[in-house]
Design a protein that fits this description.
five-stranded mixed sheet, Glyco_hydro_77, 25 strands, Immunoglobulin-like
């Protein structure tokens, strides 16, 4: 590590929310190297290459508010009355107006607050303060200041004090299913689970008493091979993967000719053969679906369907045009887009506009795919709600996007360059993690009034009754790793969590949805309290809920505002975990940091501590089978006050294999495994719905039991 940094560098870093020190997972104090600090500042377009430049940058940062007439954005909670500082030439008499979302105009009164004028760039500048009224409605409003002939504007975003739970959850807890949607295939699937399979699974779950079905992120992936298998490394977080379309349920299929129908059936027959493969074949599925969907796309639409599509395109606006243009260019020129001619790497360039015109049919096709897939997923939400689910489909929001994807191309102005998101070293990854995803730039996001963020949330929430936010700690701070460095050479960068969490709560409240934050990992003490105060649920996983590293917490001590589960997608299903599958796989792949004997002994001790507690509370006998243990672990969760209990579909059928092994890429078939039984043989959705094992586990979750 380099020598102690001069204080201007540390002061400059802190002024931009860049951590200069932190406490690691072992409780050690770590000082971030000067090189890392400078690289991260460079990603924020701050020059700290020399002492003089550092001092200049610090002075500019301190004067920055005075150079702006208005702040980039004002975010407040309903009922708050913040002061807004307005900077104008000395002697000017600004008039402030609020333009509310509903069209109403309101004058804003000046606060009795005197600040000495300052000379900024040769102009004597005054700070005049206005106080916002306490009765502003929720929403996105405009703040306008007029002084002389000049007009300045900014956004005022009013967010809920607290996101209230949906009414059914206020009365009682709910349980639901959790699954990787693509892995749950019916006999009609084209090699992967789709929107129709989701509706089928959800309506069946509703009949068993389930109130939600939580699925993996369904964000868009590459439109050409090779499609990235990880749903957590999407090409766009705002748009959806058309792989989830059920071709036969697109309305225009009904108007195809007999010959065209036959072609659709042939494509379907080919794709359904993929259901027999040991590993999922996304590219094979998409090849068949895309060929079929292009035929359907060319079919004439009715007037009402044309109007619906036009309204969808109008609502989605420039974001949809950019995404569809990127897809069309990828189909034409291939990936990575960083190799395209320079003029095509800027979505606002004249060259891109000309290409959009040349590829107009392809651009429309990819816009149409979004209309179809989002319609089908929205239909699934309506169907499961009509079947009795109080929440319905809970979607998942990934942390970031692929560096070579559509969002990285279209939103380059609000994403940081030269760094990627990751995680510092921890118990499971002692060298840290680099997720290769470009992070939001906090300053540019605020400059844009958080529009890219809220557009992304709106798309997902239109399809959902709830939203799980992966690594919700990223709304507070993210670990930025300089390109070319090891993950442990990164540092934290702070975000305006009041704005990010507030807008999330606002969009969720407007959609009538709840929010679950995945708050596992290294968490600052106050963060969980803050999320709870804002009405967001946390996440509790039974195997990680321990008092002293070994002894399991009693379920009664779990948080109320949380989703409690036995397992998660980064661990084997419960039957596999009980059998030590995670230790075996990590050993085979060379991922253990201790000897196999040590890891096995530690794992056995933790697992046995849990099972001993179950026996003590009369949930298990000494001779209990693995199936008995899976049932008892889920029953144990029902004794917690947790508002939500999640049951993995893989546990319903006794699957044992990990869906994702952290720390691996091609060494393990991450995100490529279909739902399977204990023997590893694929299980269809139809088999899940008649499974004795599934019904038995569900009874253990729903049955009222006296505590032992």
């Amino acid at each position: 590590m380099s020598h102690a940094a001069p204080s201007p560098l540390l002061d400059l870093a802190r002024a931009y929310g860049v951590a200069t020190e932190y406490w690691d997972w072992r409780g050690n104090h770590v000082r971030v190297s000067d090189d890392t600090i400078r690289t991260v500042l460079t990603a924020l377009e701050v020059d700290a290459s020399t002492l003089d430049k550092t001092e200049e940058a610090l002075a500019r940062r301190q004067e920055e508010p005075w150079r702006r007439v208005l702040p980039r954005v004002v975010v407040l909670r309903q009922g708050w009355t913040p002061w807004v500082a307005v900077h104008v030439p000395d002697g000017a008499e600004p008039v402030a107006l609020l333009h509310l979302e509903d069209g109403e105009e309101r004058k804003v009164v000046q606060a009795d607050h005197v600040v000495e004028p300052r000379e900024i760039d040769g102009t004597l500048t005054s700070e005049i303060t206005f106080e916002l009224p306490p009765d502003l409605p929720l929403g996105y409003h405009g703040f306008e200041v007029t002084y002389g002939d000049e007009v300045a504007t900014t956004s005022v975003i009013v967010t809920p004090r607290r996101l209230e739970l949906p009414a059914p959850l206020k009365r009682s807890r709910a349980w639901g299913l959790m699954t990787q949607l693509y892995s749950v295939r019916s006999e009609r699937s084209w090699g992967l689970g789709d929107a129709a399979d989701l509706a089928e699974l959800g309506t069946w779950g509703a009949r068993q008493g389930a109130d939600f079905v939580l699925i993996n992120p369904v964000h868009a992936a590459e439109p050409i091979p090779t499609m990235e298998p990880s749903p957590y490394l999407p090409t766009s977080r705002r748009f959806v993967n058309p792989m989830y379309i059920r071709v036969e349920e697109v309305p225009e299929v009904g108007y195809l000719s007999a010959a065209e129908h036959q072609m659709i059936e042939w494509h379907g027959d080919d794709a359904r053969r993929l259901n027999a493969l040991a590993d999922l074949d996304r590219d094979g599925t998409w090849e068949a679906k895309q060929a079929a969907l292009r035929m359907v796309f060319r079919q004439e639409r009715t007037h009402r369907r044309r109007r619906d599509f036009e309204e969808f395109c109008e609502r989605e606006g420039e974001g949809l045009v950019d995404y569809a243009t990127w897809c069309a260019l990828v189909m034409d020129r291939g990936l990575p887009w960083e190799t395209w001619p320079e003029e095509l790497r800027d979505p606002r360039s004249e060259a891109v506009a000309q290409e959009r015109e040349r590829l107009a049919d392809e651009v429309e096709f990819h816009s149409w795919l979004q209309w179809i897939v989002q319609s089908q997923l929205a239909d699934a939400q309506r169907e499961v709600s009509a079947a009795g689910m109080s929440l319905g489909v809970v979607h998942d929001l990934a942390v970031g996007v692929h560096p070579g994807g559509a969002d990285a191309w279209a939103l380059a102005d609000v994403l940081a360059q030269g760094v990627s998101v990751g995680a510092p070293p921890d118990d499971y990854n002692q060298l840290g993690q680099d997720w290769s995803q470009p992070p939001w730039r906090p300053d540019r996001l605020a400059e844009a009034g958080y529009a890219p963020y809220r557009d992304m949330l709106r798309t997902i929430l239109r399809l959902a009754g709830g939203l799980r936010v992966d690594h919700i700690l990223g709304l507070f701070r993210l670990w930025w790793v300089p390109k070319g460095r090891q993950a442990l050479e990164g540092t934290y960068v702070r975000y305006d969590h009041e704005a990010l969490v507030g807008i999330l709560a606002l969009e969720a409240q407007r959609a009538g949805a709840l929010v679950i934050g995945e708050d596992l990992g290294t968490v600052e003490d106050w963060v969980r309290d803050y999320l709870s105060d804002r009405g967001l649920l946390g996440t509790s996983i039974l195997w990680f809920e321990r008092e002293d590293g070994v002894q399991p917490k009693s379920p009664e001590s779990y948080r109320e505002l949380c989703l409690a589960t036995v397992t998660t997608h980064d661990l084997p299903p419960t039957a596999g975990y009980l059998d030590g599958e995670h230790i075996r796989v990590r050993n085979q792949l060379g991922l253990l940091t201790r000897s196999l004997e040590e890891e096995t002994a530690a794992d056995d001790a933790q697992r046995e501590a849990v099972l001993a507690e179950l026996r003590r509370r009369n949930l298990l006998t000494e001779s209990a089978s693995v199936e008995d243990q899976v049932d008892a672990l889920h029953r144990y969760l029902t004794w917690s006050p947790a508002r939500l209990i999640g049951v993995a579909v893989s546990d319903l059928v006794g699957d044992v294999r990990t869906i994702n092994q952290p720390g691996t890429d091609e060494e393990y078939p991450n995100w490529r495994l279909p739902l399977a039984g204990p023997d590893g043989e694929p299980v269809t959705l139809e088999e899940v719905m008649v499974s004795r094992r599934a019904k038995r586990l569900i009874r253990n979750v729903t049955q009222k039991q006296p505590q032992g």
